[in-house]
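Write out the 3D structure for:
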Amino acid sequence: MTKTTKKVISYTLTVFLTVTVCLPQAFAQSKEELQQEVATLKKQLADAQAKLQAVETEKTQEISKLQSELAEAKNRPAVTQSASNSDLLGDIRIGDFKFGGAIRANYVIGDYQSTPGPGRGDDGGNFELDTFRFNVDYAHEDWMGALEYRFYNGYNFLHTGWIGYQLDESSTVKVGVNRVPFGPGPYGVSQSWFFDQHYYVGLSDDMDLGVKYTKNIDNLTVDAAYYYSGEGNWNGASKDSARYSYDVVNETGNGYEERHQINFRGVYSLDIEGIATDLGLSAQYGLLESRGPQSDGDHYAASAHMVNKWDNWTLASQLTYYTYNVSNHTLESGAVSDDLIDMGAYDFAWPVAAEAYIPAISLAYKYETKNIDWLEYVKPYIEYSAILKEESNQNDSEMLTVGAAWKRGGWYIYTDFAYSNGNYFVGNDDFTTFGANPNDTWQYRFNINFGYYF
């Protein structure tokens, strides 16, 4: 065996012994490190699973809370609007019932002295109770309802009283004393305490006894209604006028009463260059049942209206034609007429022109006073409306109102300056202002209405 061969064999044996002895140790060390790494990964995985479970639990709780709030909101009654904002009502709840109310008082300075009739005030300024009212709203699953009763000085009456059902997601039906669907909104175009001239001839914020169906079809809202009569006479000194809204009344015993009225209204909502716009048409027809020797009559009205909103501005406009077809009958004043009709509310009746056009427009701006702690917002407005009468012997009745509404918590305050040549609540003229308006003089009234809603 050569020396070289011995060296090769020796080297081979050395490598073999090294591999044989060291390799198992290396494998043993790698296995231990691998096991440690696997254990570390398992711990990290367990931590991640725990965190994921915590997140899922939190999300589940949030979803459950949202579902509970949604269910509560669905069962919450829709608050009936009043001359103030609906969000002023309190939050006293017993089961499915929600209770609220309001007390209001007026400060008045007018261009007149006190005369018989409701709410005119004195020339030197007068502070008096306006109204006390209570509200009950009801909601249970698809059922809903609303009740409002009002008390004034010497008389009181039902304002609202209906029960309703949600037929599906887009349609409802209401039965009872509810608001007649006519015009652009519950109060016509008006934002003020005085309303506009539509109100005084029974064509805005009118409550009657009947059934109303409302359907939403995409951007279109349709109302169809049948009313058996007005809301009725309640408690007061008058024979037929202790009621909230203006109806044809029978004060003499041989006048007329409203019967079998039907209403249709359609309002289409769209966006015009960033201006939210509601375009609407309203129509109304009803019978006038005679309580005297004269024959029965009828009445009808048609109106086109529009509301535009951009930013905090609201512009509302309306044009209406109405007519009351009546025979010679005796008015509350004792006169016999076929071009005037007695209308009554607030325990007092007066003659109204039997045929006229009514244009009305208002502009309002809602300014949120975020930097004033004692005030949430103020809403200044300016309004104009007129009763343009068809009879040549009757003077038109116009009214311009400039004012603002102030909101803080349960307080809602109107400050209004009204200037009119034919509104019974403004000036020293007698109650013929909505009818013949013989004096046709412009007079003023400054009014502050303090209202606290609970």
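Confidence is low (pLDDT under 50) at residues 4-9, 11-24, 70-87.
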